[in-house]
Design goal:
NAD (chains A, B, C, D), alpha/beta, about 425 residues, homotetramer, globular, 21 strands, seven-stranded mixed beta sheet, six-stranded parallel beta sheet
Chain lengths: ~425, ~425, ~425, ~425
């Protein structure tokens, strides 16, 4: 399968019966070297749709590529269009495609697995070794991202949208998919308790999905008061806990650039003085105390009735990728509970593994998502029904705090997406670029 | 362990240092032979609490005993106090009990398993062969029900209540437990679709729990328009479907007396002419058409986006115990889905088993509940927190449509509980007796 | 995707650069109207291999088509090659295929799902609505079976064989797949007890897989003494029980023709006098007694140590498709256990559903299989390692009791496959046709 | 419940109608301060049996207490009888016990949970906070171990033995329980592949249970050639890999004293030069290379057929408790697989968590066991049936390599149990003390 949009400059003299046309694309050539270019695009191939991209959300991994031309261990080795949280409209239909019409509104699932290996056939296609994922530097040549005017995409990985789901919300189906997958892996029983560490986009959506899955109490934590307040005010979580920043930390503004693949979170590490000046044991003690405080907060507002409740929450979703947060996660979870590693971050971590081992706390990582888009669409569609007694997700549209129009303004979007507040002091949650 | 309240008449002359006192009890001696009696009650034994019963809900099985002195195959063989949906206040504390104070408000879990057999140790204590369940004729001597002034009950099976849970709601924790157990067995993933057949107490609560567990669309059906309307208006379900009654059926008013153990449901069988005059094949065809109609109702209001959706719902909860409803359930469920048998009813059923077999629809029965009271309490406690964005159960207090004060008025409660509307035409959902 | 071998007669005048060649095929045109024909076969298309079929096992569904030109509700409407338990050798390789060489030995997985619908992506591709399955009349035009000299088959559904797996054993990977899927759905914990009803090919293999999965005691039952003896002697099961035939039954020889899709089993119905002369209640009583006898057999040889053991086995695999066997299955399974419906048979069954409901016995059907071939190959490969302490499946080669050479002798194979003993009184288990 | 045997010296003048008698006990008073003492024992209380202990196996945790009067973080604070792998004979029966006779042979499950807390009721009683476990210093006063002539033990936690299970094998039911629990948590599907790190008692039994559960290939590794050879020769594993020791390591003999609760394993750390002289990155590289070598060993003997197989095993059981082995475990496991932490060891570990996170490798710890004794007894009982085709565990009796008679010889047993070979160069696996 050829990349849907080539890197070659558009040919000068198009033949009369052209099969290609010209589009503009936002292309990253190196750290902060973002260029608006013209690319040629072929007609959609067998099984493909051509999509005019409408909205693309900026993710932490995009910001990382933008700043470093790399994301964690992955270094880009050729020009790369970013953006993988996208929705758009069908503008052309390739051969052998059925079920779509020009004008259909769709959300794009941008990771294309092989569909035939053992793990694909078993339904865990997110783990397919041959996965090609738009805007990631993993496969070479890179599978180009969605910050292009139009792209050709396999119809099988385009999800039709009902009228009540906006393009913004549809773009947010991507981070919502991470949250859905995280909660599916956790499989809480109704009435469970959950803790979410990190109140970035993915943390917020994970908290909301934990509530959707029936968790009776969902506590969200972050060092950023604004995000915690937002989470509770908008119903993403039932309780919020602001992790106190120490006086002399300067990590607050830069920390977010570490970004995870699946949404940025303000890390909690501000709470710690540098590891080198603090013994690891006292680090663990801090984490344990923090866990106790978080639990007592929840329990104080809801008097303790079941004796086991002070042992910890049923499930902790770690959405920051920070080692110190994994410590907190392990101490805050009850025996027999689960810690879900959502936020990608420190690849090598020093952890009190006996806490998990002796208490049989399962540690489950999640990598992207599988089979989540139909679920997400169903949940967003249900919002519109307006049932009298809740049970629907908070508004995703509301999470879009900043909007940039036109690919030519992508640079501003990336710069803003790396901050937690804008120049006016307003919360920055999700920045989107509209085509 | 001796029964908590004996059947013997109270002794005339109590000794000076008495360990027993006298209580009033509502005792059934035969079909509709309900008597208000005086019984003696011992002080609470080791590990027991003495509970002054405040509220007891009337269940379908209670109505069955009241009318027939039997419930399904179980025939009472001695006087039997009914009532197993109860809450009350601790009035005395036996030896070796800790964690309780006089005045504590509690919900009673009235089934006492042995705690030591293989299945108890594996956490499925509801299946314990030695289970003793109050108000049931299964164990002999019968384990007396809660329609008594006070009872002694193992402290381990009394669940403390937070202030925000009323005695009414606490009594309803029993049918809610059935619903919680049903949904735990179904373990829907968030965004699933569900169908609930029967809108009695258990059907309503099961629908609400399906929503709590994250189901995006929950359709409830019943022959009774009032119940269906109630379910949708109050947010128990997202969609309602009233099964049309044929012209010449007379089963409407009496049908409810068939009652299930765990809540009564208006059966759907009114829709069918007598089986003897109708070939079984056409019965099945009717069930299939009914299933299609129910599905299309849901799908019409929510345009079909995922191609598989017209194959059926993910999970069907059958809460009527009727064979015809099992047919509908099997036809209405998608390949790979689940049918949960909740409502007890026809012991021998003729079913299109190949529909389940060839489509791998799991058929899972539920018998009472295990480990559900802490969950139920946590969910009801969460209601009080008043989060802005829903995700809480509908009010259980609101389900108590009729209230009788004093055990001496139990007869009226049983008579009313066997009807679906009262003399004023108001919906009868849950009838409770207050001590 | 075009059928791999067309029904059209071979063209008379082949062009010079032919893309088609001529093969012989065994084709069924009506009940017992089996013809040896010449068909043309194209070169393998994109993604396809051309396989010279070596061994094909005859399944109960094949016998059903052979006798009735129909299998259950499915009626053939055009000429149909039978056979779906096949192995062969790669003789040509289509474009865009990698990982295969001419001469590779392969087992054929003959059901081709769409790979893109929701249920395929979730890993349950056996339930795909667009599934095309060779030798079945379900899809029209029928997807032709393997009793052809050569076929073109998607490389993705050809499984390479190590040297130690014979073509016979490889053909038996198909019924073994049914057994693997059945046991995967049952997911027994090591040390479980199992009962297998029916000792045909699928019953035997299911018993062996139950042992493979760690079941400590596996009892197999059949009306045929020879099969039961074989099962125990060869280690498929640990215990055998021969269901006594009543004196005046004549159903013994014909019963097998009812066949299931996935292997024939001698039904137990011989034990019953006609249902019409026997009340259903007494039928159930018979089933219950039979269940008790089967359990006591196992328990007598292994003195009862765990008190719950007399409550039934953990898992019952029903491999006959007979209603009376489902009765036995339900009564023979412990509370909290599982009944797996393996053998297809009576579409509409009258069952004591309360036995399952009140004891929470899960009823799980299986339809074919998914993700089983790699497992089966791994298990057969392990046989060859010859570890000192067992844990390997019984020999599958040994199950091939009769062998016919040449497609021209297919008729004899079908006739014999419908019997349980041959003319010499020898057991008939698996009949294969060698190309 | 009072401790079953008190620490007080026996009273001098017993009353005529004595309820106590005098026994000998092996009691540890400090590091290597093991004394043979006289203790008094009461008659068995309500619900208790008095057991004459016949065989007790020495576990790694026993050796740790013997040497350091502590086990990991747990320090003994009063005299402590060791031993928790025990079998014996019923010599007296307390009130309210049924189902046992004097002379019954039993295995002792020595951890007594509360039975009433949430986690007990959910079937995970091994995680009960109130658990009292014999020979452990965790509860105070310590719950005395089994190296006593007789002990009183709750009948509910005594498991009757069939004749074919020896006292030796019955003592080994305790480490077998750890293995059963580990495999239950892993829940391999039949045909899975497994890797077991560490070939001590628990490693060997875990490997055997992995085979019992249907794993087709089980590779065991250790630095000790003798143990690896034993494992393969006796059928505990299908493949063995001896981890090469570097030339200049001196950790071989002392390393075992670190012992885990549930069986000792020769750690693999000999392979590494001190961490301080080696960068952590190169440590990880070594672990990755080691993992690759282990996998290629298995795959070379069994030619690679399924393309995913070189991605790692389905399940790795880490039985050494060493950090370096956790590294190997993570690298050796396939995407979507599981690492089970069995061996307790280094409480704080530095791990390449992204390897687990990005590949969704679940990390599951196990702590002791729950609901395993009936399973173990069923599996050992099945050994005696002598089915022709394997599927039974290797002999547990054979694992008892050394035997000491009389509690007065306990010291010799502890000294030997801390070694991997005896003075004659014979393998030391399980050392038992016979009463």
């Amino acid at each position: 399968m050829a990349p849907s949009a080539s890197d070659e400059p558009a040919p000068m003299h198009l033949p009369v019966i052209s099969k290609a046309s010209t589009i503009s694309a936002s292309v990253l050539h190196g750290p902060r070297d973002l260029r608006l270019e013209r690319r040629s695009i072929e007609d959609p191939d067998v099984g493909e749709l051509q999509i005019a991209v409408k909205t693309t959300g900026i993710c932490g991994s995009d910001v990382s590529y933008y700043k470093k031309f790399a994301n964690g261990d992955l270094c880009a080795c050729m020009p790369l269009s970013l953006g993988h949280e996208s929705s758009g409209t069908v503008v052309a239909i390739g051969p052998h495609v059925s079920g779509f019409s020009v004008g259909d509104r769709v959300a794009l699932e941008v990771g294309i697995p092989c569909g035939q290996c053992g793990i694909c056939r078993q339904g865990r296609y997110n783990l397919c070794k041959k996965m090609r994922f738009r805007s990631s530097a993993k496969s070479v040549p890179h599978f180009q991202g969605c910050l292009q005017e139009r792209i050709n995409h396999p119809a099988n990985w385009c999800h039709k949208l009902p009228d009540n789901i906006s393009f913004d919300a549809a773009a947010l189906l991507e981070p919502l998919s991470v949250a859905i997958h995280a909660v599916n892996r956790a499989s809480p029983t109704p009435g469970s308790t959950a803790l979410v560490l990190g109140a970035g986009t993915v943390g917020l959506l994970t908290a909301a999905m934990a509530r959707q899955a029936g968790c009776a109490a969902v506590t969200i934590t972050d060092v950023d008061q604004g995000r915690v307040d937002y989470a509770v005010a908008k119903g993403f979580a039932t309780h919020g806990y602001v992790v106190p920043r120490p006086l002399h930390t300067s990590s607050s503004s830069s920390s977010i650039s570490s970004g995870s693949m699946s949404g940025t979170s303000t890390p909690l590490d501000g709470v710690m003085t540098p590891a080198s000046t603090l013994s690891f044991r006292s680090q663990l003690d801090s984490a344990r105390m923090l866990a106790t405080e978080m639990l007592s907060l929840t329990n104080s507002s809801t008097p303790l009735l079941v004796e086991d409740e002070d042992d910890g929450v049923d499930i902790t979703f770690e959405c920051t990728g920070k080692e110190i947060c994994m410590h907190t996660a392990l101490y805050a979870t009850r025996p027999g509970g689960k810690v879900i590693m959502v936020g990608m971050g420190t690849p090598i971590q020093t952890l009190p593994m006996s806490v998990a081992h002796l208490r049989e706390i399962d540690i489950l990582g999640i990598f992207r998502y599988a089979n989540t888009y139909p679920t997400g669409i169903r949940l967003l569609r249900a919002q519109a029904l307006g049932s009298p007694s809740g049970f629907t997700l908070p508004s995703l549209d509301d999470m879009v705090t900043h909007r940039f129009k036109g690919l030519e303004n992508a640079r501003g979007a990336f710069e803003l997406a790396s901050r937690t507040v804008d120049d006016d002091g307003n919360l920055v949650l999700k920045v989107v670029i509209e085509a």
